[in-house]
Write a structure and sequence with these properties.
By secondary structure, this protein is α+β, with helices and mostly antiparallel strands. The protein is built from three helices and seven strands, in the order ααβββαββββ. Strands 1, 2, 3, 4, 5, 6 and 7 form a seven-stranded antiparallel sheet that branches.
Length: 193
């Protein structure tokens, strides 16, 4: 094969590869910056958690949980330090379920266990969000991102409204609330904003 023809074939192949790569990039949050990276996804997860906690009235005390990252996704977590009594778990789950539906999330599953109830949802952009109740009435929130571009991920910037247990073990719930820890259902249930 002629050297000139060989160069044209190689240049053509390079153009096809480069054009093909740029055509598969997904739009990011602003539609122009390319595919969302892990830090952008973490920020989106933090915003989802911020909005969810702002909807909880009366307020609960919470701390950050561990951020975990996979090969192309990550999870942000928050642990509630306010004890949620058995009598109030349904109220919290109902409030969160209504708020997530109002926010455009699809409820994907509900665990109606009396001891360890949970609700799971998904946003239109593929982020999973959940609330589960564990031992001693401790509530756990988690947002799991879809697969995104790899990048460094900073710690959350939102300050917890109680002690920050990052870097150490998180204790069982240790904050009492007149409403959330009440062992009678005499007061009305909160409603989502």
């Amino acid at each position: 094969m002629n050297v000139g023809v060989m160069r044209l074939v190689v240049l053509g192949a390079i153009c096809v590869v480069l054009t093909g790569c740029s055509a598969v990039a997904s739009p990011g949050l602003d539609g122009e910056s390319g595919r969302m990276n892990m830090q952008e996804a973490a920020s989106r997860a933090d915003l989802m958690l911020d909005d969810t906690f702002a909807a909880i009235k009366p307020e609960v005390v919470w701390t950050h949980g561990v951020t975990t990252a996979g090969s192309c996704d990550l999870s942000r977590r928050r642990t509630v330090m306010t004890e949620i009594s058995e009598q109030r778990r349904g109220a919290l789950l109902g409030l969160i379920d209504r708020f997530w539906r109002k926010s455009g999330y699809e409820i994907t599953a509900v665990n109606n266990s009396e001891e360890f109830p949970a609700v799971y949802a998904k946003s239109v952009d593929g982020f999973g969000i959940s609330l589960s109740i564990g031992g001693k009435g401790q509530a756990f929130f988690e947002v799991a991102t879809p697969c995104v571009e790899g990048s460094a991920v900073a710690e959350p910037t939102t300050k917890p409204n109680g002690p920050d247990y990052r870097g150490g073990p998180i204790p069982r719930p240790n904050v009492r609330s007149d409403f959330w820890s009440a062992e009678s259902s005499g007061q009305p249930s909160p409603s989502a904003p």
